[in-house]
Amino acid sequence: MDTLLTKCYNRQFKLEEGRKLKKLHALHKEAAHKASKELWPNREFRNSLIVNLTETEFSEDELNILALGPKFCATQRKAPISDIVASVESALYKIPRGNVIAASVAKLIHSHHKNTTHNLSLGHLNAISTIKSKLRQDGLIINNADKGAKTVIMKLSEYKQKMLSQLNDEPETKEELQSY
Description:
- With 180 residues, the protein is mainly alpha-helical.
- Helices cover 65% and strands 7% of the residues.
- The chain has a three-stranded mixed beta sheet.
- Helix 3 packs across helix 6 and helix 4 (81-92) packs antiparallel against helix 5 (98-112).
- The relative contact order is 0.12.
- The model has no long low-confidence stretch (mean pLDDT 79).
């Protein structure tokens, strides 16, 4: 009788746990979607972070992505689970009882890899690929400003000219670079 009651409680607990995890996942997804839609609610501030020295025009989503700066890291849509498991296993097989630990780690990773929340919407991810294609087509480069937290968009040819002029201004630097 006691084991039957325990099984019943365990089953009820598993069902409740599943419902709670599903609800939590839905809340995370909703919060990530809401946050990614409103990356920069203040357009003036966002536009102050970007200096476009070209004639190329960018959409709202593209400007939102550019304003995030170069240190922003988008979460991956699919984590490289097999690579992670392989590297963990190869390290753990070198220690005693490593195969037992590796198996439990692999099981844990596989069971939790679907719980990732994304910090960008699909529209913003499409904007990243559009930005990349514009950079290639128009011969542009994205850089940090020397001062301030600004993102500068300029033609690659102008960038190279400025770099060469700086090198020509300082002969010691030019000689040091040529020695490498």
